[in-house]
Amino acid sequence: MKTLRKVLSVVLSICMATYALPGFAYTTASDAGAVKVELTDKAMSQAVGAGNVDATMADYAGQGSAAKAVIANRSILTCTYSLSVVDTDGAITEVLASGSVGPDKALVVSGTPSSASAFLIQAKITNAGVPGLLSLDSSWGS
């Protein structure tokens, strides 16, 4: 048993010593072979066709009041947004506002739920072509 512990300790030590965070890089052909090039944030954004997006809800007062959200697109892509009433299971019951927002643009969207019993409002911005490019924020009404 002691031998097994020692072997596992050595293996774990080697694994931890060689662990490194992944870096984003690409290679280009050159006369001497492949060259590793580190990407800047801007180059990475261009390489994956993204940047970041943000949907931020203002506090929703409930009972027929307007719901407001700030939609910010700091990517190089056009993204779609929605402001929706959502039930407790996450299903959309009513869309208050939707549309698209261009690259490096931000806007304030608002809408008033038709039902006075709307308690959860959700703002969302996404791009279908880049699954990780998503922001979601919710606000409960009183």
Keywords for this structure?
142 residues; flat; 2 helices; four-stranded antiparallel sheet; single chain; three-stranded antiparallel sheet; Immunoglobulin-like; alpha+beta
Describe the structure.
This protein has helices at 2-18, 41-48, and strands at residues 25-30, 33-38, 53-57, 67-73, 79-86, 92-101, 105-111, 120-126, 134-140. With 142 residues, it is of the alpha+beta class. It has a domain at 49-140: Immunoglobulin-like (Sandwich), CATH 2.60.40.10. The protein has a four-stranded antiparallel β-sheet, with no helix packed on it. Strands 3-4-7 form a three-stranded antiparallel β-sheet, with no helix packed on it. The chain has a two-stranded antiparallel sheet with strand order 1-2. Mean pLDDT is 76; it is low at 17-31.
Strand content: 35-45%
Mean pLDDT across the residues is 76
Molecular shape: flat
Terminal CA distance reads: 61 Å
Total helical segments = 2
Give a quick account of the main beta sheet: strands, pairing sense, barrel closure: 4 strands, antiparallel
User: How much is the radius of gyration in Å?
Assistant: 23 Å
Percent helix range:
10-25%
CATH homologous superfamily classification of the domain at 49-140: Immunoglobulins
